[in-house]
Amino acid sequence: MTVTANPSQNNQLELITATVDGVEVRVPKGTLIIRAAEQLGVQIPRFCDHPSLEPVAACRMCLVEIDGIPKPQPSCAIPLTEGMVVRTQQSSEVAAKAQEGVMEFLLLNHPLDCPVCDKGGECPLQNQAMTNGRPYSRFEEGTKRLFEKPININSEILLDRERCVSCARCTRFADEIAGDPTLELLERGAQQQVGTADDRPFESYFGGNTIQICPVGALTSATYRFRSRPFDLISHNTICEHCASGCSTRTDIRRGKIMRRLAANDPEVNEEWNCDKGRFAFTHTTLDRITTPLIRENGELRTASWPEAIEFAANGLKDKQSGVLTGGRLPQEDVYAYSRFARVALNTNNVDFRNRYASKEEADFLTHHVAANSMHVTYRDLENAEIVLLVAFEPENESPIVQLRLRKAVRKSKLKVIAIDTAAIEGYKKLNAEIILTKPGLEADALNKLVPSLNGKNVIVLVGERAATSSGLLSAVASMGKSTSAKFAWVPRRAGDRGAVEAGLLPTLLPGGKLVKDAADRAEVAAEWGVAQLPGQSGLDQVEMVKAALSGDLDAFVIGGLDVYDVSYHSDFIAALEKTFVVSLEQHYSSVTEHADVVLPVGVITERSGTFVNWEGRERSFAAAMHQSLALTDARVLHLIAEKLGVKFADQAKPSELHKSLTSLKDSSNTSTMSAVASIKVPGILLAGLRQLIDNGSLQQGEPHLAATAREAVARVSAATASANGLVDGNLVIIKSSTGQMVLPLLVSEVADETVWVPLNSDGSTPLKNLSVSIGESVQLQDGGRYVL
Amino acid sequence: MTKLVPNLTAHWDETDSYTIAGYQRHGGYSAVKKSFELGPDAVIAEVKESGLRGRGGAGFPTGMKWGFVPQGDGKPHYLVVNADESEPGACKDIPLMMANPHSLVEGVIIAAYAIRANQAFIYIRGETPHPIRRVRQAVADAYAAKLLGKNILGSGFDLEVVVHSGAGAYICGEETALLDSLEGRRGQPRLKPPFPAVAGLYASPTVVNNVETIASVPAVINNGAAWYKSFGTEKSPGIKLFAVSGDVKRPGIFEAPLGITMRELIDYAGGMVSERPVKFFVPGGSSVPLLTPEHLDVPLTYEDMAAHGTMLGTGTPMVFDTSRSVTQAVVRWIEFYKHESCGKCTPCREGTYFMVDILKRLEKGKGQISDLDLLVDISAQISGRSFCALGDAAATPVPAALKYFREEFETKLVGVK
Question: Less packed terminus of chain A by CB within 10 Å, N or C?
Fold first, then answer.
């Protein structure tokens, strides 16, 4: 359990002296009795109490005696005051008897089905019934209240109402932390129960946390229910592989299989929460894995041995003009290995980690303002800021823990959030954000207009990866950082992205923020890698590599963790792959393996150790959860190919060695700045959108309960755009491009005019794949008639 | 014999007692004018001086409650009238609103003026549509007579009054649950502090008073604190509505000084029906411990009731004759609390469930001797451990009933004929 202290207040902490169980304690003013007792090692039993939630004093389990007050008092809701004398169950008969009484009451209507309950073995009710309960029940002849069981409160969460002790942790979490107050207590008395309105599901990206904080077995997940007992699990500290929030997680494994994932406690990062994607999307680690190397022969992939496949790959790459592309799944050590492999074994700076819209301006921004700029802005800074400006970044979908931290600050420290984006998505509303709507491409103008009003304030700007689609936006952010006191940070979407920047996986960038064009930087990196020199010419980025391959200037690709349908020019991309020799390092069959000449299977996140770098630049190291795995890391596979190409690294691509090597390069403070870029106004109706947190992403495959909690894909336009194009709210809308069309239900809402907002990779809404259109490109709209479910 | 003092009830026998004309014929709304001349602080001082105590059951001094409202804090202040009369046995506020609603409206104007509230709410029990309609009409008539709205009687004081209908939960008589309900939430009591006087309705300073309390204010202002204090005792000054029900010949409302005895009230009510003697009575609704015939001459005051282990409560005695079963009465009461427990806290939610389970067994003659001690023990586990006073109330009937009538309970055990 987490309490994050606010460091800005630490200096003026007023201490008070009180007595708990005869021991004098000095604690900060405002410390609750139950917390002070914890510091003494006295565990007062509790259910409704939770350090991250507002006190309610509902369960009455934590009653203690306070001198001068005739009735026992709830220690979870009363702060210690100067001179207060408190007696807990350890030294007070009254408190002990009161707690025993409450425990007896709680068990009356509880089914006592511990032997079949998922919580059995890790259940606060079970444990505290042992420590603070009566040895036997006096309700022997009574009739328990029963409920139909279980009910789904959403597709992922099941509720056994008869186990519930009405502590209201789940409902308070939904209301206070997630900002999704659709889970409520209903009815009254013994019939009081948790529920949702009119059989609508509990809609939240964070719903899984309610299962974890439930102090009984009332809430269970569809994935874990009846699968395991806690004492059969082996728990491992892990880091979430999905987004750049960098959550600490706990992975519970039984007999070599992941049973569940929980949020781990990390006060500086995810506190004790995570999102449902991080909690439930782990089936990808086992589903449809590629198990052996494959070689394309006569147009078909066939199984090959490792030595054969490595040799095949090395022969195909030898003396070729090659490019290296990676995706967001890779830990820092692996991207670093790709970076080194390209520069040393392939003698090229043709490297890019961006498996999406990639602009020169963005590469410039990342090179000069992000690389080697770790911990410039942290979660804690967000909490202490006066204003947080979100630019092309909607945290609830794109980095959910940032959303939770911002929401906490909005609630507790009166943070003001301003957002510049194309549509007023729900997540912004949960932050009470002031939303500045702009047509795609014009965000920079809106930002420049806003800047004077922010001067002199404690402002933090968070800019998302979608900013790359808006010409001039990133350079405007950079110049704002120079001209004002505002600090800014780049929040990418994928877990591996920030680490890739640190590892120098850009055509102009070397590891540690060093520059390709700087001879001294090159020499330093070359020395670390034990080679004489590195290629000095800037490489090609992803877009240029595809073009070069089509024109015959590039002969080979090494690709790890990438999907061609994540870009709008996928037909060009596929043609480029068809035309070149492609080495694919992959976990699952994908749009790249389909066109690869050699496929080399690599290990998934649970099978290896490594480091993710989150958006703060904070290193998040993890160990292998499944040690017995024989799967190779990307780095190790690259090492084997390099050896065949005649390049040998002493570290054998061990993750710990790679990490040490990269760290040794990370001392440079890059003080250069990027040059300004003008914004481009595109006429017509433009596509806007984002990738919803729960969508068709490849790491979410095989988890139907999670997938069913995804938000329905709708197209959003403004009222003005709807009427100008003859569109009707609630009808279907047809979105067309020169290559295709898609049909979605229309929601008229707060969106910039002449803009249609759609999810980028959800059921029924895949504009990159279907329309070959990316954000900021023009589409046509047409009414599609009535929408019938 | 203590004399009745008809004040609020003085004109109930007139056919138009509930109209504004009927009210004004007897000097109604003159206290508003007088209050505006005195000024708000003097009104608070006068009410404080009169010793008027809350008539909703707890008996908290009204003037002191008003004095807790911070002045000059820049926040809006609210006056909320608790007209959610739902206590078993209590039937005084609803008749008062039916027969004399304008005394309530006048009291609202004066109280709101005193605490500097420009908005008042009257929260009336939802199951009772008649008083809701009547008070709505009274408020509308007061608006028409310019006694509500902007610049009342040229004083510069503005007041808007909303009559709100509850949705049928006993818990909403608890002041903070009432506030939650009024804000549109599910009625459950709030954690205190902060108290409503500091952060009540919409997190602003709020005074919540009972109907009878507020309706008593005009007389206090008109006749002065000294007049009011001339009735009753030092600690329980003034006059009060006593609603006598049960096995009496003429159940009804008797307005008398505090300190009147139960024997006197029964006499006023025409004596016992069927002439059977009193077996037991509860002085103030089901939430207070019962008393026996030996207590018939104890003065009905806050302090004397406390001295005999019970409370004055709402001052609405229920009288039971010797034909009644105390066990049955207790079962019905506890069933009521089980049904009305809001569910928020464990002791009240589960404790009432537990007690009903045992009491039902006893009622059927299937109890064990240990059940009696268990009932007392459960009551002790609820009393003082619950979130709000509902739980405390649910814990009161059993210990008192067992204290005076244990033998009767013992006849309900297994094997006893």
Answer: C
User: In A, which residues are within 8 Å of B344 by CB distance?
Assistant: 56, 58, 166, 192
pLDDT for res A651: 87
Please state, for a pLDDT cut of 90, what percent of chain A lies above it: 90
Average pLDDT over residues A129-136: 94
User: Is CATH 3.30.300.30 correct for A308-353+498-665?
Assistant: no
* Across A313-342, average pLDDT: 96
Q: Tell whether the model's pLDDT for residue A386 goes beyond 70.
A: yes
B352 CB neighbours in chain A (<8 A) are 189
| Rounded Cα distance, A512 and A502, in Å | 5
pLDDT band at A339 (very low <50, low <70, confident <90, very high): very high
**pLDDT band, very low/low/confident/very high, at B75 (cuts 50, 70, 90):** very high
In chain B, residues with a C-beta closer than 8 Å to the C-beta of A106 are: 346, 350
Interface test mutation site (partner A, options B385, B386, B387, B392, max chain A beta carbons within 10 A): B385
pTM of the model: 0.95
Any idea which of A105-114, A619-628, B171-180, B211-220 has the lowest mean pLDDT?
Answer: A619-628
Domain A686-783: assigned CATH number: 2.40.40.20
CA distance A738 to chain B (A): 52
Tens of pLDDT, residues B338-355: 999 999 999 999 999 999
Higher pLDDT, residue B341 or A667: B341
Distance CA A740, CA A770 (A): 6
Q: What's residue B181's pLDDT?
A: 97
Q: What span, in angstroms and rounded, lies between the C-alpha atoms of A647 and A666? A: 24
Question: Does A106 sit within 8 Å of B384, measured CB to CB?
Answer: no
Q: Decide if pLDDT at A672 tops 90.
A: no
Domain spanning A363-493, CATH architecture: 3-Layer(aba) Sandwich (3.40)
Measure B390 CA to nearest chain A CA, in Å. Answer: 12
Mutate which of A46, A47, A60 to test chain B, going by most B C-beta atoms within 10 A? A60
Smallest Cα distance from A59 to chain B, Å:
5
Tell me the pLDDT of chain A averaged across its residues: 94
Spatial distance between the Cα atoms of B417 and A267, rounded to a whole number of angstroms: 67
Q: Which amino acid is at B105?
A: V
Q: Are A188 and B340 an interchain contact pair (Cβ–Cβ within 8 Å)? A: yes
Verify whether the Cβ–Cβ distance B381 to A138 is below 8 Å. no
Q: With an 8 Å Cβ cutoff, are B346 and A105 in contact?
A: yes
Assess contact for A237 and A247: CB atoms under 8 A: no
Q: Residue A733 and residue B267: Cα distance in Å, rounded?
A: 81
Write the residue in A55, A72, A106 that is nearest to B346 by C-beta: A106
| pLDDT averaged over every residue in chain B | 96
* Beta pairing class for A151-152 and A157-159: antiparallel
Q: Where are the domains of chain A?
A: 2-108, 140-285, 308-353+498-665, 363-493, 686-783
Which of B343, B347, B385 lies nearest to residue A189, judging by beta carbons? B343
Q: What's the pLDDT at A4?
A: 45
CA distance B392 to chain A (A): 11
* Cα atoms found within 13 Å of the Cα of residue A229, Cβ hemisphere only: 8
Which CATH number is A2-108's, of 3.90.79.10, 3.50.50.60, 3.10.20.740, 3.40.190.10? 3.10.20.740
CA pair distance A295, A582, nearest whole angstrom: 11
Test mutation, B174, B335, B345, B359, chain A, max A CBs within 10 A: B345
What is the value of ipTM here, to two decimals?
0.95
Contact check, Cβ <8 Å, A188/B386: no
Helices A655-665 and A332-340: crossing angle in degrees, nearest 10, is 70
Distance in angstroms (rounded) separating the CA atoms of residues A401 and A246: 8
Structure tokens at A567: 């870009």
Please name the residue of chain B whose CA is at the shortest distance from the CA of residue A166. Answer: B344
In this predicted model, what pLDDT tens digit does every residue of A11-30 receive, in sequence order? 568 999 999 999 999 999 99
CATH of domain A140-285: 3.30.70.20
